[in-house]
Amino acid sequence: MNRRAFLTATTGVAVGLAGCLGSSREQPDYDIGMSSSAFLPKEDFEPRVGEPVVWRNTGSRSHTVTAYQSRIPDAATYFASGGFEGEGAAREAWTSGTDGAIESGETFEHTFEVPGTYNYFCIPHEPTGMVGKFTVTE
What we know:
By secondary structure, the protein is an alpha+beta fold. It has two domains: 1-27; 31-136, Sandwich (Immunoglobulin-like), CATH 2.60.40.420. Helix content is 25%, strand content 22%. The chain is built from two helices and seven strands. It has helices spanning 3-26, 87-97; strands spanning 32-34, 39-41, 52-57, 66-67, 107-111, 116-121, 131-136. The strands form two sheets. It has a four-stranded mixed β-sheet, with no helix packed on it. A three-stranded antiparallel β-sheet has the order 4-6-7, with no helix packed on it. Strand 1 (32-34) and strand 2 (39-41) form a beta hairpin. The chain is globular, with a radius of gyration of 20 Å. The N and C termini lie far apart (62 Å). Residues 1-25 have low confidence and may be disordered.
């Protein structure tokens, strides 16, 4: 095969695959990604009551999703990766053994049943500003 024919053939394959790869990036299977020290919500992220929210660790470091207990609606169910019932328990479990960790590529999901603003953080990266917030609508 001559060089020009080879380039034409491989360019066609690359162009064909580019469309496939692009569509998977446009519609990820999560709502909020996690880089090395930040939560990355989709641009149009606006969860509704009864819809699950999915966080995916898209970085290489271990993270948590931990609600600030005093900064969620009063009637809301507390949420934290690891299934802890309160912020203190989540912090203690992380400190004593990294319980609640979401490893690279893993997800955490929670369904919100109460509208309002929810503030959350990553326990090991809270000091560097890894915090998030969103509002659940009716």
